[in-house]
Amino acid sequence: MTDEAGLDNPIDRLMERASKSLFATRYFEAARDAQNALRRARAAGDFERMARICLPLQEAHRQIRQAAESTGKVRLIAHASDVPRPLEPGCYLIQPPMIGADARVLRETGFRARTPVSVLAREPLTRRLLWPIVGVGEISVRVQVDPPVPLERVDDRITKDRFEGEVPMAWFEAAGEALGDAAIEKVPADLHPHWRVDDLLEALEAAPEHERLHQALAEACRVAVGVAEPRGRRPSPLDNPFSF
């Protein structure tokens, strides 16, 4: 049976609702429906619909990220008590003793509260004097970047440095771009097209604000259209003992 809009596919109904939410600037609702549609389309092996869903999902995520960045504020969060109550719009950098999974929880909390937040997590300063930036979803993605200012490594702090300064918005945005770029590069180009879609889908959970990652997923979906199911087991990062 077809509804009034002529949409007899539940995925299309979700995307019709997501499109209306985008038009009405209800970006959290749009992202929720587009994410659900993307998961349903993958379960159905409908790569053509997946490719079409990526653009509105990217736009919803972009609007949420820009709303967070427009506050001009990056909060440094080392303990749960550092998070404002109620949660405020803005950008948040999680640092030790908190971990990447805490950044994911904070992002999801903001989503449920319809509060625009952009969240990154950094790990202890390396011996090369770099900050590992980590994104956590079904998989973890890491990239090492220069900290906002040159730092000396110290061993008496869990962060391995004494950074307590301001985090510039430009640095935060660049670190987010580097994380998303690393997520794309982590997915082998020679994977079976279906597996490449799945890897990029998992990467998007780890770096959901990265625009080019949405575009890479859309392109992978287009390549996967009409391709037969792969044989065997999908490769796992755990197959490589040197992977993280």
Structure characterization notes:
- The structure is a single chain.
- 46% of the residues lie in helices and 11% in strands.
- It is an alpha/beta fold.
- It folds into two domains: 10-67 and 187-239, no CATH class; 76-183, no CATH class.
- A five-stranded mixed sheet has the order 1-2-3-4-5, sandwiched between helices.
- Strand 2 (90-94), helix 4 and strand 3 (117-122) form a beta-alpha-beta unit.
- Helix 1 (10-23) runs antiparallel to helix 2, helix 1 (10-23) packs parallel to helix 3 (47-69) and helix 5 packs parallel to helix 7 (211-224).
- The chain is globular and about 60 Å long.
- It starts with 9 loop residues before the first helix and ends in a 20-residue tail after the last helix.
- 39% of the residues are buried.
- Mean pLDDT is 93; it is low at 1-5.
